[in-house]
Write a structure and sequence with these properties.
alpha/beta; Arginase, Chain A; seven-stranded parallel beta sheet; 11 helices; about 10% strand; globular; Ureohydrolase_dom_sf; histone deacetylase activity; HDACs; His_deacetylse_dom_sf; Acetoin utilization protein AcuC
Length: about 400
C-alpha cells in the first residue's frame, strides 16, 4: 500500500465554467485549493494529474448521441432535447473537453484506489450527480460519479456503495444504477416536495432484482446539524454494514449549509466537518478504508465552500484542522478583492451546532448536540427516518423498528 491519500487536481478543472453569474462558479475550487495550500495541508502532496475520460468510459453511462450533442453544442447552441443551452446548463466553449476532464479526474481517483497506490482519493471538481444518460441537468454535463463507479465495476469491484450528502437528490447516479444490485446508492437530501429535482422519495427502492439498493432519506427544510446527523446515523451505518461495500464513494456537496442561496437546510461548517469525519470512519469500518471522495454543490462561494472543503481535504489526508484556527491572512487578502461586498469568515468554525469547536466531535454519541434515533416518531425528522427505514431495511434483513439495527 502506497500513500494514505491522493488529491486529483488540474487547474484546467476551472475551465468547467458556465459563465456569467451562474451559481456554479469555478472560483470555489480555486479558493478551496488556495486555502488548503495556505494551511499547509498539501505540503508534500503531489497532485495526481487527470486525463480526459474516453468516449468508451463516458458511454458506460451516457449515450453516443448525447456525447455528439455535447461536442456540437458550442457551435450548434440551444439543444433542449439534450438539456443544453438552458438556464441551468448554458453552452460554453470546449464543453465536452472540460466535462470529460472532470470525469477523467474521478476515474483517476478511482484508479489510485484500485491500483493500491492509496486507500483514499479525492476529486473536488467531481460530484456532478444530476447528469442523465442522454441529457444535462442541474449544472451537470457528464455524470462523473456514475462514470467512476462504472469504471470501478469494470475493474472487478463487486460492490460499491455511493453516499450522497448534497442538499439535492442524487438522481442521476440513482438512475444509472437503479437496476444494478452491485451498487448501493444512498441520498440524504432536502424533501423533494420542497426542492428541485423533485425526486428522491423513500419509495424509490431500485428496479426488480435490485430492490433495496436505492435508498432515499428526504429531510424537512430547516434541518440543522444535530437533526441531519441523527438521521444519517439512523440509516447509513446499518445499510453499509449489511451491504459490505469494497469501495465507498461519497458526493460531498456543501449546499446543505444554512447560508446556501439555493436550498433550505440549516447546517454549519462544523456540521460538514462532522459529516466528513463520519464518512471517513464508515469507509474505514465497512470498506477497508477505500474511500473515493467527490465534490458537488455549494453556492456560498466565499463564506462556506472553501472552509467546508478545506476541512474535507484535511479529513481525507488525515490532517484534521482545529476549527478554532483563523482563516489564513494571505487567503483573506486574495479573496477580499474578488468579493468586496461579502463579509469573509475569520475562523474555520461557525461556532454552532454539532461537531463545533467546543466539542470537536464527529457528530456521534460524544457530541452533546447529537441524540441517536431511538425509534421515536412525532417530529417531521423522525418520521422521515422511520419512512426510509421501513421502506428499505427489511430488504437488507434489518429490523426497521429496532434502533440497534
Amino acid at each position: 500500500m502506497g500513500a494514505r491519500a491522493a488529491i486529483v487536481w488540474d487547474a484546467a478543472f476551472l475551465d468547467y465554467d458556465l459563465g456569467g453569474d451562474h451559481p456554479l462558479d469555478p472560483v470555489r475550487l480555486d479558493l478551496t485549493m488556495r486555502m488548503a495550500t495556505a494551511f499547509g495541508l498539501l505540503d508534500d502532496v503531489e497532485p495526481v494529474s487527470p486525463r480526459p475520460a474516453t468516449d468508451d468510459e463516458l458511454e458506460r453511462v451516457h449515450t453516443p448521441g448525447y456525447l455528439a450533442a455535447v461536442r456540437a453544442a458550442p457551435t450548434a447552441g440551444w439543444d433542449p432535447g439534450h438539456g443544453l443551452g438552458t438556464g441551468d446548463n448554458p453552452v460554453f466553449d470546449r464543453m465536452h473537453e472540460a466535462s470529460a476532464l472532470i470525469a477523467g479526474g474521478s476515474i483517476a481517483a478511482a484508479r489510485q484506489i484500485v491500483s493500491g497506490a492509496t486507500r483514499r482519493a479525492v476529486n473536488l471538481a467531481g460530484g456532478l450527480h444530476h447528469a442523465m444518460a442522454d441529457h444535462a441537468a442541474g449544472f451537470c454535463v457528464y455524470n462523473d460519479c456514475a462514470v467512476a463507479i462504472a469504471w470501478l465495476l469494470d475493474q472487478g469491484v463487486e460492490r460499491v456503495a455511493y453516499v450522497d450528502v448534497d442538499v439535492h437528490h442524487g438522481d442521476g447516479v440513482q438512475a444509472a444504477f437503479f437496476a444494478d444490485p452491485r451498487v448501493l446508492t444512498v441520498s440524504l437530501h432536502q424533501h423533494p416536495m420542497t426542492l428541485w429535482p423533485g425526486t428522491g422519495y423513500p419509495t424509490e427502492l431500485g428496479a426488480e432484482g435490485a430492490e433495496g439498493t436505492a435508498v432515499n432519506l428526504a429531510l424537512p427544510p430547516g434541518t440543522g446539524d444535530a437533526g441531519w446527523l441523527r438521521a444519517f446515523h439512523a440509516v447509513v451505518p446499518s445499510l453499509l454494514a449489511a451491504f459490505r461495500p469494497q469501495v465507498l464513494v461519497t458526493q460531498c456537496g456543501a449546499d446543505t449549509h444554512r447560508d446556501d442561496p439555493l436550498a433550505d437546510l440549516a447546517l454549519s461548517v462544523d456540521g460538514h466537518r462532522a459529516i466528513y469525519r463520519a464518512l471517513r470512519e464508515l469507509a474505514d469500518t465497512h470498506a477497508d478504508g477505500r474511500w473515493l471522495v467527490l465534490g458537488g454543490g455549494g453556492y456560498s462561494l466565499f463564506r462556506v465552500v472553501p472552509r467546508s472543503w478545506t476541512h474535507l481535504l484535511a479529513t481525507v489526508l488525515g490532517r484534521d484542522l482545529d476549527p478554532n484556527r483563523p482563516v489564513p491572512a494571505d487567503w483573506m487578502a486574495h479573496a477580499a478583492p474578488l468579493a468586496p461586498h461579502v463579509p469573509l469568515p475569520s475562523a474555520m468554525t461557525d461556532r454552532v451546532g454539532a461537531g463545533s469547536a467546543s466539542t470537536g466531535s464527529a457528530g456521534t454519541d460524544g457530541d452533546p448536540g447529537f441524540q441517536p434515533w431511538d425509534g421515536s416518531t412525532g417530529t417531521p425528522l423522525d418520521n422521515a427516518v422511520r419512512q426510509t427505514r421501513r421502506a428499505v431495511f427489511p430488504l437488507h434483513g434489518l429490523d426497521p423498528d429496532d434502533p440497534r439495527d
